[in-house]
Each structure stands twice: as structure tokens, then as C-alpha cells.
Amino acid sequence: MVPSTPQSYSFGMPKSPESGLVKPGAARVRVPLALLGPAFVAAIAYVDPGNVAANLTAGARYGYLLLWVLIVANAIAVIVQYQSAKLGIVTGQSLPEILGERLKTGPRRAYWIQAELVAAATDIAEVLGGAIALNLLFGLPLVVGGIIVGLASMALLTVQSRRGQRTFEVIIVTLLAVIVVGFVTGLFFSGVDGQQALAGIVPRFEGTDSVLLATSMLGATVMPHVIYLHSALTRDRHGVTGDPVRIRHLLRATRWDVGGALFVAGAVNISMLLLAASALRGIEGTDTIDGAHAAVVATLGPAVGVIFAIGLLASGLASTSVGTYAGSAIMGGLLKVRVPLLLRRAITLIPALVILAIGFDPTRALVLSQVVLSFGIPFALIPLVWLASSRKEMGEFVNAPWLRVAGWAAAALITVLNVLLIVLVIAGG
Asked: Exposure check for the chain: N or C terminus, fewer CB within 10 A?
């Protein structure tokens, strides 16, 4: 969306009368705060119910063993999300839009199918998580909870459609604050073993299942649908501009935005694993969300259990709305087809409700959905790094050599981990 007036994207920052641009001195002070928002919407996807399932399962089953995965994944996420946001600001297009212009019809449709499968896996995880939370809080049947989550997400998407992205951002950031409280609170009541936590920083595995969980955690932390979405979020929020001065101001603000948002998301994810490792390790049944919740209540008290469930509910509501938004951006960019958000929400709700209705273990479904996400990462990450490293596309804002190396290293690491998972599963190791 291109702003109709300069004021629609200035956000009250002081301007020079000559240029209409933000004064450099003021920009250094006010731009980061004034332009926060898009990365915090993206960050919701990094603390969705899939993260909860993967991180709690990892901590309860393996203690601090896989802590290093979250650290690496969060570092990768910072690099990736900044490049996606940067692409949207510099080119004025989202990643799906650029790919839609460059791919021929057949490859473009095939690419859309895999991206849509990733978005579907995301949505399943988020609806399931919200349904589990409503079951824990109010004893509602999972199917009923799933329907309520779907309706609530429709309400949030209506806000985005009618009130604009800024209002949507405010609501999502508020839900993010609830998520932080919900999942960090329990950490203050559990005794984390500092020495073992430090040992968990050293990369290692313990068999095929630990690799499966590591891949799930990676898929839950570096999420492909948000790689596609973030470029659209920054473009829609800041508008399209070819002015190098303004672009530099926006990129400076975006670094603050991405760094702050993913610091919060990373802290929440690490808190989940530490909580499970310190309070749930060795307790029967804690490799499921409801089992972990029961153990949290028994170990840390009912109040902490309620806060935990509220955090899970906020996670499901916020992330499913963002996931639907991302799916719409993917379809619009690759197929040039615009499906109303509410209609898309209604259609994508069906697979999650079917899973809930047939009685499949929701926590297991959550973990497996994150593995699907992990397999989708290279399809989003490789073209992103390639485009962001292209002087033809980015001009003077092309990635610095170190950022190119970091981007390609991230893509290689994720691809290798996925291949390792396939080999181990086939070998039955």
C-alpha cells in the first residue's frame, strides 16, 4: 500500500522544510521508536504454539541438551528477518511479488503450492495451540476451542482490514506482551541449573529423535511464511520510496525493530525450554502440552498454570491471524489472486478442525507441523538471500559481504540439518 500523503508515513517525526525528510539528528533519536511495529508482528510467529510444543518437549525429554538450537535459530532469525524487511523497503515489493514476476507459470504455481503447504502447517499449529489453551482454561472440547480460535482470528483480521495495519500492530504487540508474561513467569518459580544450561550451549544430539526435535525447533523459530510476510509488512507500513536518504532512515529503524522484536521472541523461547528442563524433566507425560501444564500446576502452583495457559491462548490467537495474513501475501504475490482474508481464514481453518475431530494427538501434530515448516525454509531463504545480495535488485543497499556470507551460511545449515533428519529417519537410527 502506497501512502496517500507524506504524513501517512512520517509518524510525527520532524521534517526539514526543504526536503520534507526527517532531519538526520532527529532521525537518530526518534526514528527507531517511531517506526517500530512490523518486526513485532513477524515475531509473533516465533512464539506460536508450535514453539511451545517443540520447546517444552525438548526440555522435558532432553533437559538442556538442545538449548544451543534456540540460540542458533534466533541468531539466524535476526539475519533473515532483517533481509526480508530490507528487501521490502528498498524494492517496494514483497518477496512473493518479486518471485511471481520472475518465475514462469509452471514453476510459479509449483512454488506457490509448497509455500501454501507451509502456511497450512503453520495454521494447523496455531489453531491447535489455541484449542488446547481453551481446553486447559475452561475445559472446552478441542473442536469447540478450535472454532472459537478461528472466529477470534477473524475478528482480528477484520480490524486489520478496516482499521489498518497500525491498529493491527498495536493489538498484536499487546498479545505479545501477554505471551511474554505467560511463558516467562514460571521461570521465576523454577530452579534453573546454570551449569547444565551452559553445557546446553555446546551443539550435540542424542539419537534420531533429538534431531527431529531440533529440526522442529528450527522450523518453529525460523518460519518460512514470515520470511515471505516481513517484506510485505515493511512495504505496507512505510510505503514505497526511491529516496536514498529516507531508505537509510527506514533501514536504521528496521535494525532496531528486528533486533528488539527477536530479542523478546528469543527470550520467550529459551524461557520455555529452561522451564521444561528445570521443572518438567523426568515427569511422566510432560512431552505433551496438556501434560506439561498439569506438571506446571503440580510443581509450581495453579496460578502459574493459569498464566501459562493464558500465554498459550494469546500465542494461538495472535499467530493464527498473522499466519492468515502471510498466506494472503503469498497467494497475492505469486498468483496475483486476492482472496478476502475472512474467506481464507474460514477455508484454512478446516484442516485443523479435522485433526482435532479425529482425535490425533494435538501436541504430536504441532511438532510434526514444525518439521514441515523447516523443510519449507530453504525455498524462502535461498531466493531472499540471492535477491538481497544482488546489486541489480538492491542498488547501493546491496548486502555487505559479511551479511551475504551469513545469509548463505544460514541457508546451508538449515538444508544440511533437514538432510540429516531424512537420512536418520530412513536409517532408523
From this structure: C
